[in-house]
Write a structure and sequence with these properties.
The chain has 193 residues and is an all-alpha fold. The protein is built from 10 helices and no strands. It is 78% helix and 0% strand.
Length: 193
């Protein structure tokens, strides 16, 4: 009733397509990844991760409206998938819809309270709106999170962005001494002032 070698061959093709799509996505070859993610979704339209990856690639190639449609599928499939809200927030932010981005980052932080990247993104958005006091709350949450991480190192770009934004926000709030403290923290980790 089922031709097992044919079914296995189809699975192997999809596994290869997913591996290639992931490689293209992770190496910044987003335009190459889009048709691969679409091919995977043609075979399994309930694969939330593939929808999110497709959305990320779409947004990186300037197709942010299409990305929002793709990520909405992922949210409908798995409303508890944090990366879907991260990607949706980034897409909304990219097209200037800050309220919607804030809502998506808020969902992300509900699912992953204190997530350093989520807190950084929320702080960045609030800082861009000159809501510096609320931005500081989120950047302080990000700092608390990265200071608690003991089992793995914080990726350097996130670490740098957190402390850089902490300095910017402190400066915008008129607290130059606090801004210098954050810059000194960067300097301790090999980042030039």
């Amino acid at each position: 009733w089922i031709n097992m070698p044919e079914a296995q061959a189809q699975k192997d093709v999809l596994d290869y397509a997913e591996a290639m799509a992931s490689i293209c996505t992770n190496t910044g070859r987003y335009a190459e990844a889009i048709p691969l993610w679409n091919r995977i979704l043609d075979e399994d339209s309930f694969f939330a991760h593939a929808w999110v990856q497709l959305a990320m690639c779409q947004c990186q190639t300037g197709l942010c409206h299409e990305a929002l449609q793709s990520v909405q599928y992922a949210i409908a499939i798995d409303p508890d998938y944090p990366d879907a809200y991260l990607t949706a927030g980034n897409a909304y932010y990219s097209i200037g819809k800050h309220n919607e981005a804030k809502e998506m980052y808020g969902h992300l932080l509900e699912l992953l309270p204190g997530d350093a990247q989520g807190e950084l993104l929320m702080a960045t958005l609030l800082f861009s709106e000159e809501n510096n006091d609320e931005a500081m709350v989120h950047i302080e949450n990000a700092i608390a999170t990265i200071n608690e991480i003991t089992d793995r190192e914080v990726p350097r770009p996130i670490y740098i962005d957190i402390y850089r934004h902490a300095a910017f926000i402190s400066c915008a709030r008129g607290n130059i001494k606090e801004a210098q403290k954050y810059l000194d923290e960067l300097s301790k980790h090999g980042c030039s002032k």
